[in-house]
Design a protein that fits this description.
The complex is a heterodimer. Chain A is of the alpha/beta class. Chain A has 13 helices and eight strands. Classes of the chains: A alpha/beta, B alpha+beta.
Chain lengths: 285, 142
């Protein structure tokens, strides 16, 4: 099974009947001129990228915005339209006192498979003891956390909150909690690799395309910033394919991954098997 | 008079060619125009409208010829993060291919029907699919 672990459904047509809500998403995500995506288009895109599953991310910064940007209910609704193609990750605002209860509700009632958080947008430190109840819910239900790491293009974000070192204390304190550094923590690729090497509960996704085209950028990140052997030999069970679509180019990124020179067995891990393990869906070792 | 309809396509592939002729002829019929012109115009910059013979072999040759002009593996200045979009542009080849095909075609309407040569068909050309696309069919005359 091939999986894109990092997809934002903010502009999927079924959850954008309200034009004001669509405009809010364009503004807050700083993504423009992309139009709305009917599910038929999403499925065509998946076929061209040879993807079986998309992991759709909710986004909740409601203490700053008043409402979630993409709610858990909206993600669950999209999953219900195509449960054979979509999985969903919940989001809660860590500053919300009810966040642990809302997360538990998302796991139990809505069937969402993990938690998506953006420290750079919500301005929090993953090692903050106040967040322990959230991690407790994740551990109780064996659900992972996907963090935005590294640079963020979204409005009102600071990259310093996404530095890989910010996640080390959490990884060390909670060895049973699986966490993913989104975007491979770009530009801190080596630092992300360092965390993956030391902590087997830390994963990273490939959802970065900030310069050049997909082949050129992946070549820079995964053969020059770090040698390809680091992933192919040592980190092969902790890297997952992610695209950050619609920010970046899902089809071309999926194609580019295959041109780097990784072993076929490593590609299988990155393209899907690692995501199954990360999500607790019973993948291989 | 001017009669305008929008065709909407959800293309399925990165590059594909779709014959629009029957739909254009239907719109001309619907317009009631007997003597005039019809323009078929794509609203996008990585798609084209062209006229050619609707043969599978020619579609393949056209795609090959366009790919020789704008190969995927070449280095393009357009491959970069675009601030106005907040996303990375990965479609320079689509823009260049669209430049070659052009974005529209015209046909004469005579006696209420399209005056086209026996081998002429209207193609919509997708160069950055899959995508949701809109094509204007503009009928002018009386």
């Amino acid at each position: 099974m091939t999986i894109d672990i990092h997809v934002h459904p903010a502009f999927y047509e079924p959850i954008n009947a309200d034009a004001a809500r669509e405009e809010l998403r364009h503004c807050e995500l700083d993504i423009h001129r992309n139009g709305l995506a009917p599910l038929e288009h999403v499925f065509n895109q998946m076929r061209c990228a040879s993807l079986d599953r998309l992991c759709l991310l909710a986004q909740d910064y409601s203490s700053a915005m008043g409402v979630p940007l993409v709610s858990n209910e909206e993600v669950a609704q999209l999953v219900s339209f195509a449960p054979e193609r979509f999985w969903g990750l919940a989001s809660v605002d860590p500053h919300d006192g009810d966040a642990p209860d809302r997360l538990e509700d998302a796991f139990t009632r809505l069937g969402l498979k993990g938690l998506n958080l953006h420290p750079g947008r919500s301005r929090f430190d993953p090692a903050d003891p106040a967040l322990e109840p959230l991690w407790a819910v994740c551990e109780r239900y064996d659900r992972p956390v996907l963090f935005h790491a590294g640079l963020s293009w979204e409005k009102d974000t600071l990259a310093e909150y996404g530095h890989p070192l910010r996640f080390e204390a959490l990884a060390q304190k909670h060895p049973r909690l699986r966490i993913c550094l989104g975007h491979f923590g770009w530009p801190w690729i080596r630092e992300t690799a360092m965390l993956l090497l030391k902590y087997p509960n830390v994963y990273a996704d490939t959802a970065a395309l900030y310069f050049d085209n997909a082949r050129e950028f992946y070549t820079q990140c995964f053969t020059r910033d770090i040698p390809l052997t680091w992933i192919d030999r040592s980190l092969r069970h902790q890297v997952m394919f992610g695209s950050d679509n619609p920010r970046f180019e899902q089809i071309r990124m999926a194609e580019a991954l295959g041109t780097l020179g990784l072993r076929d067995s490593t590609l299988e891990l990155i393209r899907g098997e690692n995501a199954l393990v990360f999500l607790g869906e019973g993948g291989g070792a | 008079m001017m009669f305008v309809r929008t065709l909407v396509l959800c293309t399925k592939s990165y590059n594909e060619m779709t014959v629009l002729t029957p739909r254009v002829e239907e719109i001309v019929l619907e317009s009631g125009v007997q003597e005039g012109m019809v323009t078929v115009l794509t609203r996008h910059t990585t798609t084209g409208v062209t006229v050619n013979e609707a043969l599978e072999c020619l579609e393949s040759d056209i795609q090959t010829a366009l790919a020789l002009f704008a190969p995927e593996e070449r280095s393009y200045c357009h491959a970069r993060m675009l601030r106005d979009y907040g996303s990375t542009a990965g479609n320079p080849t689509g823009h260049l291919k669209a430049m070659l095909t052009g974005n529209h075609c015209h046909f004469l309407i005579h006696g209420g029907v399209l005056e086209r040569g026996g081998a002429q068909d209207v193609y919509f050309c997708e160069f950055d699919g899959p995508a949701r696309r809109e094509i204007l069919v503009i009928v002018e005359g009386g």
